Amino acid sequence: MNLDDVLNTFLAESDEMLAEMERLLLLFEQEPLARSDAEQLNSLFRCIHTIKGSAGIFGFDAVVAFTHVVENLLDRLRGGEVAFGERLAGALLACRDHIAALIALRTAAPDAALATAGDALLAALAECAGGSPVAAGQSDATLMETSAAEPVAGCWQVQVRFGRELLRQGMDPLGFIRFLATLGEIRTVSTLLDALPAPADFDPECCYLGFDIALATTADKAAIENVFEFVRDDCELRISPPSTAVDSFVARIEALPDEPRRVGEMLVASGALTPAELASGLRQQQARTDEAPLGFLLVAEGVVDPQVVSAALDKQKQVRATRPQSSQYIRVQADKLDALINLVGELVIASAAARLSAQRGGDSATQEAVLAVSTLVESIRDGSLELRMVPIGETFQRFQRVVRDVSHELGKDIRLEIRGADTELDKTVVEKIADPLTHLVRNAIDHGIESAECRAQLGKPVEGTVRLNAFHEAGSVVIEVSDDGGGLRRDRILAKAVDRGLIQSADEVAPGDVFNLIFEPGFSTADTVTNISGRGVGMDVVRRSIEALRGTVEIDSVEGRGTTLRIRLPLTLAIIDGFLVEVGEASYVVPLDRVIECVELTAIQQRELVRRNVVNLRDEPLPVVRLRDAFDVDGSSTRRENIVVVNYGGRKAGLVVDTLLGEHQTVIKPLGQLFSNLIGISGSTILGSGEVALILDVPTLVQQAMRSDG
Amino acid sequence: MSCLLEQTGLARYRVTGELCVQHVTDLLPHWLALGAGAPVSVDLKDVAEIDTAGVQLLLVLKRLAPTAVSFRNPSSAVTEAFGLIGLTAVLGATAEQAPQGTV
Predict the structure, then answer these.
(1) Per-residue DSSP letter, A302
(2) Cβ of A202 under 8 Å from any chain B Cβ?
(3) Rg (alpha carbons) of chain B, rounded to whole number
């Protein structure tokens, strides 16, 4: 491994860290206090820390110097010395960009301009950080107040205050103490009388007593807590371990396996905290507005010893240090993966050939063996394709920044909502979809969402919303970009199209196709050209790049309410499950996920087919394409023909074929440039017999069917 | 079984029965009256049973009139209960001929 490789790794890693930073900072910016919990601050700190460390190795001194200052500030943030605010998040975001710029230079010293910019950023940062320090010491005070009575050496300290209604419920606190005595030896009991009211206010059926009990026992905390199980919800219970137990908790936490865990989980695992205490602590944490860390709350309540909590925190830190999150992944070069996928493709073809030959001439043992191999090959295929699958969330996250920057620039108040971030699709597809998506998002912000004044006038919320949504649907991935803006205006699109000479008159466009006009080259309805969008280059490019991915794009728009652009993409580009059919001598593959059903073409339907391309399927009209006619296959079918009913984008159509051959794993071989004009064919594949079969492009075939129908 | 508060002599009272939650409400007015006037002594030897409510009753009276009210002859049930919660002193310090630690 030479230095260049290492450098590339560093650059890739920094990219990741910077992206993560950006995500976190945007989060903080949106919800300054509510979400800025320690966990995320720690992640932020780790990002900067990692960048600083790695930059040092390569002698990028400017990066080190700059990140050092930022790191210090983040450390103070973590310590609670500085409060997080929107301004600070903004300043840090600017710093992040500066770090990215510095790293991109790949030199030790930046030029003067960049250095000055850096200094200015740091000054701004210092200014933001200066104000509103969090009051320290508060926490200590509360801690002292609630600390337990003088502990007895070697004993569990059980402090309990019973609920007022306990006696009326027929329970006797003395009974609990007697029961507690069965666990071990009660050394001392002091009764807490402070709640006992003056005789005038005294209700004899209320329970006013509390007890502080020193219990010498070998039972664990959960067992002690169990004594009070029936009254757990109504009483204040605090169980503190003997000082010797604190050491054993710490030892147990340190001995926990090195896997990432939450502090609460570790405390429970060590026995220092019971699940019920954890649950109540978490409830309390949720009820608070300041998002205090769980450990802090638990210590303040006296539920656990501060020493144990800090041991758990240390352990967590140590685990994270030895096992940073990114190391759960192995970095593999994309071309190695591609080579593997290609090989798997060949394997699939070869195994199909083996199966065919075994079926023809092999004995049953061979057939069985070949069948087992095919099953395995299928799993290998699925597994290796999955290697290429990545969640789209990462790409979506990038748009947080785009939306923030562009909306600031335009002076609009826009929020980005992301849904379905964990929807997975092929890495190549993800990479190629990013640019068109950017275009669509910018369009939505610029053209879609109206200005704040305009929105206020229309009675809409002033804050506009852009939504990114992804989900799986029938073998494809659907990505939606929607906005709650003004929507597309049918009349203006038509007028513009006539104006530009795209159409002769408004009448020649079917109502459903009006919106598709905006995908024509040179089309823009924006009144003014901004430097973000509106120049009319774009939507045609968007459509072309999506079609290059074998995808489609459609528009839903309601004037005044907003627009949704729906992109449908195939899950993967390499291998599909196909359905093999035969017309004459030629074989064709229909992607299996498009197939709804197969029915025999009846004599009546055959007669219908002579007149028009629609048949009656269970009293529903079904537009059909006769592949024999569509592909000009010679001869006429002597056998009965079949209809393969396919679906695309919610529409149904039938393909008339001669023979149904069944499912077939299909490795897609793209057609050469020479065949790029073929309509209705999206690729080819090699069958087990060595013959070539063409893969049908269902969308265009369906469209053809609809057209000849209408 | 019920709980009965009787006067047995001059400034002498006796509690009989279960000094428990079922009876404390009925007992309370008479009970607090004990602490209102001259010093009294309450005999606890016939307390067959006592629970937290009963303990509280004794404590309240003791708080109302720390010196004027004294308890004597705690029954084993009373001694056990007060021993359990570490308040034997409440009984012991003012008990007349009260044998302690009979548990």
Answers:
(1) T
(2) yes
(3) 12
| Predicted ipTM of the assembly | 0.83
CB A189 within 8 A of CB A203: no
Spatial distance between the Cα atoms of A407 and A414, rounded to a whole number of angstroms: 6
- Going by their DSSP bridges, the two strands A586-591 and A692-696 should be labelled as parallel
Under 8 Å between Cβ of B85 and A193: no
Contact between residue A183 and residue A219 where contact means Cβ atoms under 8 Å apart: yes
For residue A499, give the DSSP letter: H
Q: Looking at residues A381-395, what average pLDDT do you find?
A: 82
Partners of A647 in the β-ladder: A652
CB of A186 within 8 A of CB of A180? yes
The rounded distance, in Å, linking the Cα atoms of A199 and A204 is: 10
- Mark yes or no for CB contact B56/A177 under 8 Å: no
Find the residue in A nearest to B27 (Cα): A204
Q: Terminus-to-terminus CA distance in chain A, angstroms?
A: 64
pLDDT digits (tens, 9 = 90+) for A44-74: 888 888 888 777 777 777 888 888 888 888 8
How far is the C-alpha of A363 from the C-alpha of A624, rounded, in Å?
A: 42
Alpha helices in A411-531 (DSSP H): 427-443, 452-458, 490-499
Show the tokens assigned to A195.
């709640």
> Is pTM beyond 0.80 here?
no
Amino acid at A141: A
Q: Is A196 an 8 Å CB contact of chain B?
A: yes
In the three-class reduction of DSSP (H, G, I as helix; E, B as strand; rest coil), residue A672 is classed as: coil
With contact defined as beta carbons under 8 Å apart, do A413 and A452 qualify? yes
Q: Which of B28, B32, B86 sits opposite A189 (nearest CB)?
A: B86
Does residue A501 register a pLDDT over 50? yes
**How far is it, in rounded angstroms, from Cα A246 to Cα B1?**
49
pLDDT tens digits, residue range A426-484?
A: 887 888 888 888 888 888 888 788 887 888 888 888 888 888 999 887 667 889 998 88
